[in-house]
Amino acid sequence: MFRISEAAALLGVSADTVRRWVDAGRLRAERDEHGHRRVNGPDLAAFARAQVEAPGGGGRSSARNRFRGIVTEVLRDAVMAQVEIAAGPFRVVSLMSRQAADELGLEAGVVADAVIKSTNVVVEIPGHERVAGGQ
Hints:
Elements: E1 2-3, H1 4-11, H2 15-23, E2 30-31, E3 37-39, H3 41-51, E4 65-76, E5 80-87, E6 90-97, H4 98-104, E7 111-116
């Protein structure tokens, strides 16, 4: 069970937004013994999944990890560019050719999608030091 503030942090919105969603019936919550609203994990996961935007306009892609954000910084040299995007509470950094950054018109303040396709993704659970499988 997640407190409203925890659910809000996980969804990248304010606690007031989560309360409005609960009040409107968009997200199910239960009251605990103290009268505080709590959202159970499976309900929160289903809601989060439903909020994910389907890729649109750019054709089809096998990449499923998309983070829409705002470009906060572009560092260019003669050949390469480092592009930083703030996507909710997350910072995504991409290295690309300067030519690609120029052709995309990437500058601070531009809305952009970071599309990530990776075969190596590390999954961590906060507060757990031990790796599954005893490693």
